[in-house]
Amino acid sequence: MTSVSALTLPDHTQLPDSDGTFVKNWQEHPQSILITDSIKPVLEKLHPDGKYCIGQDSGIYWRLTDPPEKGAEAPDWFYVPNVPPTLNGKMRRSYVLWKEYVAPLIVIEFVSGDGSEERDNTPPSQGEGGNIGKFWVYEQAIRVPYYGIYEVVKAQVEVYHLVDNTYQLMKPNERGHYPIIPMGVELGIWQGFYLNADLPWLRWWDAQGNLLLMGEERAVIERQKRLLITEKLRSLSAEQLNALGIDPEMLD
Prior knowledge:
Blueprint: H1 28-46, E1 52-55, E2 60-61, E3 72-73, E4 77-81, E5 86-87, E6 90-91, E7 95-96, H2 97-100, E8 106-111, H3 134-141, E9 146-151, E10 156-163, E11 166-169, E12 178-180, E13 185-194, E14 197-206, H4 215-234, H5 238-243
């Protein structure tokens, strides 16, 4: 008789966290940091309990194979709502779907080649040597509601929305952005200077079209606000400052 322990599926501590390949594009890591940094305030409001996780080049295990890493896809960026960021007090090594049951709400791939890998819709029945298309996995196996394909060279992004179990290519709104309604944000392309490089970058906006700022940008805005307030206070008389309970020497 087979014991229960023999039937237990492996978790994130028992599965490989890498397939040993190199990052193909030097812009990938800065790009991931940019969209993670700027979306954090939104996610903290959506999840006041802190239950969400973000993966960057991390494996999503959706089937058990030999070798194990053949059963995983590693999106360049993904967000999963309503799951804890750590497990048993440790950072996740990977995201194991059969242990969590919650699919990512959105996955994003940064294209390094011609985009054929990211758009590969090959099902298991047709894949040679066990190869299955990435597009098929996200659509039919993991069932990710939103799938973004960012082509750096073309400075464009495609976003697919899962409708009736099939990905539908979304149309951009009047701002050229793609609304990710459950998150209350839009995804689009921003041309600007980040980490010593003036390039097109994938970024978030809020539902009103306001750019979501990263930490450094938020800090600059706060400094500008403080300087403006200080200048206005300096224009007041000593009597007015005293009435406000402000020591004029504090403005020097």
